[in-house]
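Question:
Write out your own:
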Amino acid sequence: MSTTRIPALAPKDAGLLTKAMYWFARRQFGEVPEPFAVSGHHTGILLAGGIHELVAERASTKLPANIREIAVYRTAWTVGCSWCVDFGTMLQRLDGLDIDRLQHIDEYETSPHYTDDERAAIAYADAMTATPMTVTDEQVADLEHRFGKAGVIELTYQIGLENSRARTNHALGITSQGFSTDSCRVPWA
């Protein structure tokens, strides 16, 4: 049973556009992600979010997947969004990345499981996610040296986007759905 603060919208209660989006999400992920099912109560926001996610995913090609995904994962972990941590783990697994190392994310600065580039991206995610932000000119200059201007823009955008996702899901009580273990529960079951 879902424990979200706003219940998921069941397909039988959804309009045609929302049903189509549920179908697309189920086709892409094997299940309807709970944030979609909760957002189904506001078709315009669901559509805007879905389009935004697709465009952002397709546009994010400047950074290696391991850099982008570990920074996004760290952001979700820092905010405390179990759904985003779960989904992010699945994405990393599907990208062929080592997910066992995620157990060492809290010790990234010294863990041999992370490269210097990954450490820099994680530290940047921490600086962007802190309140108030603690990003420095030197940090951005280092990232530009590592990833180029376009890479810094992509990294910054992805970390900012994950802050939005994680904070939205956390506020709505959306929790782990089982994507990382291939055992998804149906949001409206």
User: Anything to note?
Assistant: The two ends are 6 Å apart (CA to CA). The helical segments are 16-29, 34-39, 43-59, 65-79, 82-94, 116-129, 137-171.
